[in-house]
């Protein structure tokens, strides 16, 4: 309850009341599990604070210039490797998709040329089903954490939520292979999201020196032993992933910073930029290699770059109203997309809960459904005669192209098939291309739009690596063309440009990032003159979308139960104090503690940090010394750094340990557990001096601190524990610990239900604007 | 001294020793004045913390949805106005410069066509001198704060340093007019820096509702009453300024975030983006208006946009070595530029200290020197015959163009004059233009490079608004051409592209921002295909430059004495505790304090914040209640919210005040002073209850907290005061206050001189890399 010291005459008695007394035994009741990929997992938090204890300080003092130089060199070397590997993966991904999907389309097209339609359908249908089945099976059986785009999980990780298994070697391999096969199977899913996750995964694995589980570790790579440095690498990896997916290095860096990272430093921007530059330069070199035709069906369309507008585009103030309209409708459609997607994901969760076989079956059903629609729908439109002087061969020979023959007689093409019976990249290119105002019929584009809108919603939740960027772009582009066609001669802009702006508006309405999307679209279209229009359309669609719901990644994170801490402090947090939400019971240790007590506490609680308190005779009065982490206690127990008498240790005991012993282990599942440590009865009666190992500079807040300010501190510095100290002396020197869950709205509103009615439904709209 | 509790047997006695006892009377000895513009001024800090007291909380609770909506609406409306005004200023600035300088060049060219060279020189010389004299005089007499680029001052402001007078209406007007005249006077200075300052100034003035001093205030604009909201507006204003200067909206936003802002929020990115979009769209509209020739001599060159590379550029892996070389030399040249500039500025300071007349004289000397060089140097080169089929008229008719006639016979042109005898924008366009490999002689470009390098160094420090971007670009472009010429046929890239890359490398070597510069150059050249090359060159030149010295803005900030707090924590801060640096004596107030004591303390100290301590009988033991600000105390004294007896006030006293009374006043010089408040003897013996007005949630650190962690908190949350509480109970509940100056290296190293020798000279290099 809000403390109001001055409202009545009881102020003195109120001031003397320990604020926490009434709540000391309330246990945090919010769920600490979340859906990661398609499985439910327990969630731990990450700790971005520097643990400053005597041991670490001694280690720092010992470090010479050579070691500092090595540290810096390794940071940059790792970024270089991340860029290189991500670029290779991205290139191979594209190469594989273009060839797999390409062969499929060439074979079916050839059969249709021979008018063997049923056989063509069967080949198309079966190859899609097999590819989907493969992707779904490896994902469901080997690495369920590879499901979906992975961006929400990485975003939550960068906020401090450690979803288990998202950065393992299995996840990485399944993500790459699963993404290739799933995208090749003509499901309406993207490869950008999986590429971002892949990049993050590569960064995390390199940062921890390889995979521990499979012994694939290199000692010299194991240099970064804390969450802080790993987080930086993962931001670089995400930037590299986005850069490789869209060949958009600046956009990738901006996306990692705007859309993914919770914190930001100028130095980090530079490192992410370096990683993206490596990707851009190597991609350029590999495309140079492929230009000579040595990459199979990997042609110009291999790496997305719709330089559809390299010539100058002219537009004037009179074009503003239609663009404004496009933005508004894009915002509405985007938020509708988010809404339906969240509902569908909830339904899919019921299916997924039933077991692995149901997950795979669901994927197969979606694949069958998709194949039938893709093959069936083009029959609904009539064939169109080829234009008299086509810029490309008509009908298209080979795989991609704007004039697909499909079932049509010679010198005719099926405009809907040109969009549908193609990879998504080619569909986008066709929609974006200029001077094609008469190439597509309104009905075809409309059918395509409806198809994409719903297929992308229903395809995302299947148990396979699936991104959202490409589906959203293709849907948005078709919607933009529709608007262009409806406006007809009332607008001077051509329909290809409308498609670009439509894609921007739909992206803005769904993803709600602005600057990064703007730069990505500019890099895709390679025309900076479009900038003012794209900026405007993104701005409007984001504003309109925010009026209805949150961005798609936040919705998915919330649906998965990942405890993401946003920047915005809800209004009620200003009326509450820290004492109003902190829960107990609190487990503390003495500065020199009995081994038996430590073992008992570690066995009976799952807490990760324990305040260390010096009590008489060590100090005159009980006083907070610092906080010790569970991992460090386990290391002490394992190395048996015990004392027979409760006296302070000398620094000689440090020789028992290396800095690595206190380093944070990688996010592998092979961690030390208290159950693995066997101690004799004698050892159990000995003591440990915790002083040299406890973090002696923990951040503290007074119990009367407002919750909003404590949250600003907690989030701003990326803490895992925030100690609450009493306002009045004479009580225990620490009265509680705040962790991530204590700040979640569910927890706070659970403790103070009367606040719920004070929350306006529309406040989110204001809060995102503010 | 570093506390080492465990190294010896004295640990217990050490633990009982109050850490601060030995230093309680040391006064902070670092200078609290800095050079702002060309004058020395006292410096105050800004407070980005939300002051949460009972009064403010009550005010928040009272606010309805309408007021929240109004708040958000005003934020966006102000951004809209900032964008609009900055765009207008930027456009008028360009229009005026193009016409002023244009007329000058047309008149002199016509005289030279009639071979009246002496008269031409006199016209050129006198017009330059008059323009410079005008700019220098208004700057020196009306607003010395308008001197220089203004970027360092704005950057320091965003870090929390309140340099007085940088955002007044005089500064704004002088900055605009001074920049126009100074740039027109052919001094080698830029308009981008002044535009950024102008944008920030417009934002600050709009944010505080106009200029208080001249009564130009609007009540409805006075909505943002704290440093936090003003900081956000100023970031948007800086972004708009950069966007208007280079017609580079995305680059402008990134520059504001990478180069200027110390903190960053996703919501802020969006608002800055909106402001830049307004600028971009309006600029587009205004250029549309000018295309019909209604803007005098304002032609295509009016707003910088060197779309020299709209066609596709091809480059391959073999081009990497020369580009690498370009980056290395650019980094060396850039750091050399920074070094010489800082030395020259120091010499100029001696001149400036002598008085206003000397400042103006210095500007005139530089102008005379520049005029002579610009007019004299082209005579050194021989005339070149016009190419057989020139793309432009040869020799150039009218003002700008690549084939300047100068003293040459007909059908000949002077290539050095094409570079020198032009506005800087035109010189850059000429250097950037492609297919001009044979147009310039090596000797001419070399002379031009040397001229630009030194003129830009000597011109920056004069008492006039002067930016660094354009001089650095023009110098870098000429150096790039030189490298291109030296490589000759060994490289497939054309010389114009070398000029672009040279400009990028010199910018990177001097300014050391990466992503924003990359985007700005891309927006200037309008060719995204250059991206990998520009990224590489920027990366290399920044790395090389960082090996030698800091970036130019940090050097200028340091030379001016602005106490900027960087993100990087020096290594020694980890070995020191807060108790090692905090200084006294500490001034505190009781929860209910005598008026006489408050008046005495305010008169005798200049402190801005005072801890409020509840002592018996209000509480059982002395306990820290919060912190009260000087401004708020003055408001209480002025409104005479006094009590005759020392008892707690009721909330009725709140009716005496409005929220505005406790709002932070604008950065005008008209602030309330303690000397202005007259109190009777009776009033002096009364009491004030400080509880409702004190910030009850101040951030605190324990005296044993490491300095690095306290700095992370201080900087991360943008604090002005950080309270230090004792580790052991039984002493005063607060033992010190940390402010910005306590964290400055000068102060810390002054207290602990033995740390100086531990600082490696080369550590800066490592630290900027890390």
UniProtKB/TrEMBL annotation, chains A, B:
GO molecular function, one term: chloride channel activity
N-terminal signal peptide: none
GO CC entries: chloride channel complex
Annotated ranges, domain CBS: 694-754
Transmembrane regions listed in the UniProt entry: 68-96, 117-143, 163-189, 233-256, 268-285, 297-317, 323-345, 357-380, 445-475, 496-522, 528-548
SMART domains: CBS
Intracellular or extracellular location(s): Membrane
PANTHER family linked: CHLORIDE CHANNEL PROTEIN CLC FAMILY MEMBER, CHLORIDE CHANNEL-LIKE PROTEIN CLC-G-RELATED
Membrane topology per record: Multi-pass membrane protein
Assigned protein family: Belongs to the chloride channel (TC 2.A.49) family.
Protein name from the UniProt record: Chloride channel protein
Keywords for the protein's UniProt record, in alphabetical order: CBS domain, Chloride, Chloride channel, Ion channel, Ion transport, Membrane, Repeat, Transmembrane, Transmembrane helix, Transport, Voltage-gated channel
Transmembrane found in the keyword field: yes
PROSITE patterns: CBS
Statement: the UniProt record of this protein carries the keyword Ion transport: yes
């Amino acid at each position: 309850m809000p403390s109001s010291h001055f409202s009545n005459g009881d102020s003195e008695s109120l001031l003397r009341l320990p604020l926490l007394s009434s709540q000391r035994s309330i246990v945090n009741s919010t769920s600490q599990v979340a859906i990661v990929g398609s499985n439910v997992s327990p969630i731990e938090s990450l700790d971005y604070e520097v643990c400053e204890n005597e041991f670490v300080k001694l280690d720092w003092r010992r470090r010479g210039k050579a070691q500092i130089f090595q540290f810096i060199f390794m940071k940059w070397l790792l970024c270089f490797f991340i860029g290189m590997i991500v670029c290779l993966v991205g290139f191979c991904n594209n190469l594989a998709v273009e060839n797999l999907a390409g062969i499929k389309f060439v074979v079916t097209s050839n059969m249709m040329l021979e008018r063997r339609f049923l056989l063509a359908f069967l080949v198309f249908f079966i190859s899609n089903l097999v590819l989907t089945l493969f992707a779904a099976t490896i994902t469901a059986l080997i690495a369920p954490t590879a499901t979906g785009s992975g961006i929400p999980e990485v975003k939550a990780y960068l906020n401090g939520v450690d979803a288990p298994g998202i950065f393992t070697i299995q996840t990485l391999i399944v993500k790459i292979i699963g993404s290739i096969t799933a995208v090749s199977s003509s499901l309406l899913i993207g490869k950008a999201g999986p590429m971002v996750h892949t990049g993050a995964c590569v960064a995390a694995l390199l940062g921890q020196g390889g995979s521990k589980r499979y012994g694939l570790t290199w000692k010299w790579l194991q240099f970064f032993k804390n969450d802080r440095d790993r987080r930086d690498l993962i931001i670089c990896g995400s930037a590299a992933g986005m850069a490789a997916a869209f060949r958009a290095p600046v956009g990738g860096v901006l996306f990692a910073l705007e859309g993914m990272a919770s914190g930001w430093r100028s130095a980090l921007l530079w490192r992410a930029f370096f990683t993206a530059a490596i990707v851009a330069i190597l991609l350029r070199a590999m495309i140079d290699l492929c230009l000579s035709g040595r990459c199979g069906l990997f042609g110009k369309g291999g790496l997305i770059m719709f330089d559809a507008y390299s010539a100058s585009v002219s537009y004037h103030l009179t074009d503003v109203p239609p663009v404004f309209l496009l933005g508004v409708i894009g915002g509405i459609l985007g938020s509708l997309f988010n809404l339906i997607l969240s509902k569908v994901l909830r339904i899919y969760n019921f299916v997924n809960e039933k077991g692995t076989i149901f997950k795979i079956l669901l994927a197969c059903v979606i694949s069958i459904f998709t194949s039938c629609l893709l093959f069936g729908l083009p029959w609904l439109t009539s064939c169109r005669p080829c234009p008299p002087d086509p810029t490309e061969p008509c009908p298209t020979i080979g795989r991609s192209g704007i004039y697909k023959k499909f079932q049509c007689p010679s010198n005719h093409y099926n405009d809907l098939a040109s969009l549908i019976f193609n990879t998504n990249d080619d569909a986008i290119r066709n929609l974006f291309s200029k001077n094609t105002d008469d190439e597509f019929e309104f009905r075809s584009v409309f059918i395509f739009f409806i198809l994409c809108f719903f297929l992308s919603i229903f395809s995302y939740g299947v148990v396979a690596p699936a991104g959202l960027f490409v589906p959203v772009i293709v849907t948005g582009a078709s919607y933009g063309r529709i608007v262009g066609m409806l406006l007809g001669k009332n607008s001077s802009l051509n329909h290809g440009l409308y498609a670009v702006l439509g894609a921007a508006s739909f992206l803005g309405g769904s993803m709600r990032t602005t600057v990064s999307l703007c730069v990505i679209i500019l890099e895709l279209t390679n025309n900076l003159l479009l900038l003012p229009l794209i900026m405007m359309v993104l701005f409007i669609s984001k504003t309109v979308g925010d009026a209805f719901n949150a961005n798609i990644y936040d919705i998915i994170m919330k649906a998965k139960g990942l405890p993401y801490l946003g920047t915005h402090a809800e209004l009620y947090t200003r009326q509450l104090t820290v004492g109003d939400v902190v829960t107990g019971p609190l487990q503390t240790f003495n500065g020199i503690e009995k081994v038996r007590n430590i073992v008992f506490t570690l066995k009976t609680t799952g807490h990760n940090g324990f305040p260390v308190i010096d009590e008489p005779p060590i100090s005159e009065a009980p006083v907070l010394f610092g906080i010790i982490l569970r991992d460090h206690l386990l290391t002490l127990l394992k190395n048996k750094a015990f004392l027979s008498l409760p006296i302070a240790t000398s620094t000689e005991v440090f020789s028992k340990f290396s800095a690595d012993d206190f380093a944070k282990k990688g996010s592998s599942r092979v961690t030390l557990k208290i159950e693995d440590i066997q101690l004799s009865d004698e050892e159990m009666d000995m003591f440990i001096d915790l002083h040299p190992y406890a973090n002696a500079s923990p951040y503290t807040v007074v119990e009367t601190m407002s919750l909003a300010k404590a949250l600003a501190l907690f989030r701003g510095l990326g803490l895992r524990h925030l100690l609450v100290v009493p306002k009045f002396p004479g009580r225990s020197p620490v009265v509680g610990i705040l962790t991530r869950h204590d700040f979640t709205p569910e927890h706070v509103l659970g403790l103070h239900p009367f606040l719920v009615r004070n929350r306006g439904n529309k406040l989110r709209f204001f809060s995102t604007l503010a």
